[in-house]
Specification:
It holds the Pfam family eIF3h_C. This protein is an alpha/beta fold. It has helices spanning about 5-15, 25-40, 75-90, 110-120, 150-160, 165-170, 190-200, 205-210, 220-270, 295-330; strands spanning about 20-25, 45-50, 55-65, 95-105, 130-135, 145-150, 180, 185. The longest helix is centred in the C-terminal third of the chain and has 55 residues, at about 220-270.
Length: about 325
C-alpha cells in the first residue's frame, strides 16, 4: 500500500507525454476573432486551462494589447497579464496559464523569437503549447489552427547552446525534430452542442458548399511563392556562411601544417647542433586559435519554413485540380 503523497510524487515523476490539446469552442472563436480583427498585424494572447495527464485542456484565453512603443511592451505586458489573471480569479474563471496563441502569415512562424518564448514559458510551466492561427487561409475554407511544442531533444540542445555539425550528428538531430505538432480536439458542452444543432439549416446545400468550389487561389499561391523565394535566398546566405567558414578552416589548417613543418625542420637543425628543440605547439600563435563554427539553428528554421510553404503550395494545387475535374464532370453531364 502507498500513501497519497507517494502516489502523487510517482505520478509527477512519470508524467505521461502530451497526446492531445482539448480546446473549448468559445476559446477557438476568441482566438479567430482577435487574429482576424488585427490582420495582417501579428497578435498574441494568453491560453488558460488545465494540464490533466496526457491532455492539455484550454478552456479560456484573453488577448494581449497591441502597442506601438516597443520600449514599454515588456513591462506593460507583464502588468496587464497579472491584472487579467487577478480579475479572472475573482470571477471564478480558470486562470492557470498553459501557453499562448499567436497569429501568423502563411505559416511563417518558425523563428528564433518563438523558440525563446517557449524557453521562457518552460522555466515556470512544466508543459505548455503555442496555438498558431493563420487568418489568411480562412478565405480558402480552412481552419488553420495548430498546436505546437518544442521537442525534448531540441530543448536539451538549445540549453547547451551547441548547434555545431558534430553535435547534431552525434544526437542524430535534423530540422524536422525542432517542433512537435499536437493534435487539437475542439470540445463543447452538451448545451452548446444542442444549440448548434438547432441552428443547423434543413437545406441540403449551403452557401459554404458553393464557396468550396471557388477555384481562384492565385493570390494565395503568389504570396506563398514570394515567401518561398525569400526563404530560399535566406537559406543560400546561410550556406554561404558555412562555405566561408570551411574555406577559412582549410586555410588555417594549411597554415598550421606549414608552421609545423618549418618548426620540425628547425628542431632537426637544433638537435644536430646539440641544442634543446623548440615546442611544436604554440597556443599564442593566431593560426592555432580555433575558428568558431556558425550555428545551424537558423538554417534549420529556414528549412522548416521552406517545407511548410512547399506543403501549402502542394495542398492548394491538389485541391484546385480536384475542383477542375469536378467542374469538368459537371459540364459534361
Amino acid at each position: 500500500a502507498r500513501s497519497f503523497l507517494q502516489a502523487i510524487s510517482k505520478d509527477e515523476a512519470v508524467a505521461p507525454p502530451l497526446r492531445v490539446v482539448q480546446i473549448e469552442g468559445l476559446a477557438v472563436l476568441k482566438i479567430i476573432k482577435h487574429c482576424k480583427e488585427f490582420a495582417p498585424t501579428l497578435v498574441t494572447g494568453q491560453l488558460l486551462g488545465l494540464d490533466v495527464g496526457s491532455v492539455l485542456e484550454v478552456t479560456n484565453c484573453f488577448p494581449f494589447p497591441v502597442r506601438d512603443d516597443d520600449e514599454e511592451i515588456e513591462a506593460d505586458g507583464a502588468n496587464y497579464q497579472l491584472e487579467m489573471m487577478r480579475c479572472l480569479r475573482e470571477v471564478n474563471v480558470d486562470n492557470n496559464t498553459v501557453g499562448w496563441y499567436q497569429s501568423t502569415v502563411l505559416g511563417s512562424y518558425q523563428t528564433v523569437e518563438l523558440i525563446e518564448t517557449f524557453m521562457n514559458y518552460q522555466e515556470n510551466i512544466k508543459r505548455c503549447v503555442c496555438i498558431i492561427y493563420d487568418p489568411s487561409k480562412a478565405d480558402l475554407g480552412v481552419l488553420a489552427l495548430k498546436a505546437l511544442k518544442l521537442s525534448d531533444s531540441f530543448m536539451e540542445l538549445y540549453r547547451g547552446g551547441n548547434f555545431t555539425g558534430e553535435k547534431l550528428r552525434e544526437k542524430n538531430f535534423s530540422w524536422m525534430d525542432i517542433f512537435e505538432e499536437i493534435p487539437i480536439k475542439v470540445s463543447n458542452s452538451a448545451l452548446v452542442s444542442a444549440f448548434m444543432t438547432e441552428l443547423e439549416t434543413d437545406a441540403p446545400v449551403s452557401q459554404g458548399d458553393y464557396d468550396r468550389l471557388h477555384s481562384s487561389t492565385t493570390p494565395f499561391l503568389e504570396n506563398n511563392m514570394e515567401f518561398l523565394i525569400k526563404c530560399m535566398d535566406d537559406l543560400s546566405m546561410e550556406q554561404q556562411k558555412f562555405q566561408y567558414y570551411y574555406r577559412n578552416l582549410s586555410r588555417q589548417q594549411a597554415q598550421q601544417q606549414a608552421w609545423l613543418q618549418k618548426r620540425r625542420t628547425e628542431n632537426m637543425a637544433r638537435r644536430s647542433a646539440g641544442e634543446e628543440p623548440l615546442p611544436e605547439e604554440d597556443p599564442s600563435n593566431p593560426i592555432f586559435k580555433p575558428i568558431p563554427e556558425p550555428s545551424r539553428l537558423e538554417s534549420f528554421l529556414i528549412t522548416n519554413q521552406v517545407s511548410n510553404f512547399c506543403g501549402q503550395i502542394n495542398g492548394v494545387a491538389g485541391q484546385n485540380f480536384s475542383r477542375l475535374y469536378l467542374t469538368k464532370a459537371l459540364h459534361e453531364n
